[in-house]
Design goal:
CATH topology of the largest domain in chain A: Rossmann fold
CATH class of the largest domain in chain A: Alpha Beta
Number of strands of chain A: 12
Number of helices of chain A: 13
Structural class of chain A: alpha/beta
CATH superfamily of the largest domain in chain A: Response regulator
Shape of chain A: elongated
Largest sheet of chain A: 6 strands, parallel
CATH architecture of the largest domain in chain A: 3-Layer(aba) Sandwich
Number of domains of chain A: 3
Oligomer: homodimer
Helix content of chain A: 40-55%
Chain lengths: 340, 340
DNA sequence: ATGATAATGGAAAAGCTTTACCATAGGGCG
DNA sequence: CGCCCTATGGTAAAGCTTTTCCATTATCAT
């Protein structure tokens, strides 16, 4: 690979001049000289070495994303949002999945630090423990977090509590009283918030919380199926189920069908996230819509602000909306749908 | 951030000694000295700067992935496979989406070259044009391609032609003669191969190709719905449809239902890929299973071989298998299922 | 014609690591 | 007791860029 000296030699100028041409320095360079340099660059197919540049400038134009699992559509969509903004701004993105290895987060933080990443975006998983915090402290000005508020970094938040509340209230509104909940795994704040919204709302409607009606899933359709079956086979079966994400809702619906129940007549089901496939399901899934792409985009925008040192609001909250479809109610006329 | 000199000073040794301790050089270092160095490293929380290291060693332990769109579950799964292997081997991964910008590929190749990536994995999208090829030529020994064979790089292949053939043959076997096809967009070799398999197989079964029965989709459920509607509304409607991926199959099934058709009685539908949700759909989707995770893992393994200079087989072909479910046939007993 | 100023080009340092090569000191052996 | 070898540690170069100061040249004006 040619370096700047090769170019300088070929164009019969100094490396300083080459750099000035490449970086459009305000320091003036004779037009003819510029052309000579550009010609040499073209012939050699020269590109400045980003490693050397990064080393000197303390800027790598690279940020890291740390998420549990890219094959989860929820995170895939967030990552896409991040990338769209990052790419626009000239930043490259490295991706790191933390699941299947508990020590993942710390390892990746160190890795990113070694590689001089300009910033980090976290989503999901668990941030805690003294070690993680102390490591993060050093990077404070370069971290944005999605979906958690208990750590004092800039954050993009989702109203999960409110979303779950709306889902549950919707079920009460259409007459349900025994409402099951298929949540996420321990340690996920998203899962916790969604559960909190559920608890709050049943209490508000004068129903006592029954631990039997609450299960902890693993975000997968399979766990939705398994836990849905448990919920529906036990005595005092719920007439409605809220699942903490759409794939688990699909699993629960499958479980209901396997038991001969008809959705929504015998069992109403509400999901969470509104992944692209949810409206194509049969029945189309009522779900709490999360603007995943926007979440990602907003977090990257924040990080950009952080890097450039601009002032900005440290917390951005995204509202959730309930998409009412046919897994909770028989098809409605448009006019009626509005009230939810 | 502390550097190696800070450590050396603190431990009262030279930087060479520090490096020896850090990199476990065979050059021996007094045990007491080692401990002093390690102590200093711990106190300063020192980590070697990967930029400087990469610059010197010409090795960055980073590879790039260039794909059309991470929010497509097909690619998300491939990326996960790549990452699992890469992570194991200590490599970080940068991700680049090419859709929505035709010049994407070239831009990312240059970017990766600037950043001294140790290798690149391509999947999907279109590689052609003189410029792209000439750029790639310089990188020849560091590129692995997934799903295309017309360029002379090491490749991980999928038997898309055979898969489509099996899907179509299955439909013939259960009595269908008018079989529609919802393919992918122009320029996608995957889409092309799947179409070829379709064409071959209808010909083998003595049916003449009818352009009317073939549509070009965009991989999305929406395009499946739209094109499914077109297919089913026209005269001489097909009794079966093969979709080039699962989301489009879901769309087509929704279209059928909207028209009052029952799947599989009035219309049989086969998808492609077998994404996790496919078996949870209603009816569970018959589909050509692609081992996406393995595809990604295999490509990264190849790239690792390429990097280490080991000999390896330059082309790895993955077979596809037909998952027969209830979108083509009423539930079968296990024994019967075998024959497909 | 000469001095001053503007226009342009160059040299060198900093950023951080690894490693080949060199230097030193101490111990063992003759 | 002196020499040599071995064990250990140090020095310096290479890898490539950007940018700050300097230096040079040429042109213009007096």
């Amino acid at each position: 690979m040619p370096n700047i000296l090769d170019v300088a030699l070929k164009a019969h100028v100094s490396i300083a001049t080459v750099s000035r041409v490449v970086n459009k320095s305000h320091h003036k360079v004779n037009l003819a000289t510029q052309e000579r340099v550009r010609e040499a660059i073209r012939e050699l197919d020269y590109r400045p070495n980003a490693l050397a540049k990064g080393l000197l400038m303390k800027k790598t134009m690279t940020i890291g994303i740390i998420i549990p699992d890219i094959s989860n559509p929820y995170y895939a969509e967030i990552v896409r949002g991040i990338q769209d903004v990052a790419d626009q701004a000239g930043y490259a993105v490295t991706l790191h999945n933390t699941d299947k290895k508990p020590e993942g987060i710390i390892r990746y933080i160190y890795l990113l630090r070694e590689k001089s990443a300009d910033g980090i975006i976290f989503s999901g998983g668990i941030i805690n423990g003294q070690e993680t915090l102390s490591i993060l402290k050093e990077l404070r000005e370069r971290v944005v977090v999605i979906g958690r508020h208990e750590v004092d970094f800039p954050a993009v938040m989702v109203d999960n509590i409110g979303g779950a509340a709306r889902a549950v209230q919707h079920l009460f509104d259409i007459g349900h009283r025994r409402i099951g909940f298929i949540g996420g795994p321990d340690g996920s704040t998203t899962a916790l918030d969604r559960l909190t919204g559920y608890k709050n709302t049943i209490a508000q409607n004068g129903v006592t919380f029954s631990p039997r009606l609450v299960k902890k899933g693993m975000w997968t359709p399979k766990s939705g199926y398994l836990l849905g079956t448990e919920l529906l086979k036990g005595k005092g079966r719920p007439t409605a189920i809220v699942a903490a994400n759409d794939p688990m809702a699909f699993g629960a619906i499958k479980a209901a069908k396997a038991l001969g129940l008809v959705v929504p007549k015998d069992l109403a089901v509400v999901g969470f996230d509104d992944i692209p496939l949810s409206s194509y399901f049969d029945p189309p899934l009522t779900t709490v819509k999360i603007p995943m792409h926007d979440l990602g985009a907003a977090s990257m925008t924040m990080l950009l602000n952080l890097i450039s040192g601009e002032k900005f609001k440290k917390v951005k909250l995204f509202k959730t909306t309930l998409q009412v479809r046919e897994s909770t109610v028989e098809p409605l006329k448009k006019a009626d749908r509005k009230k939810y």
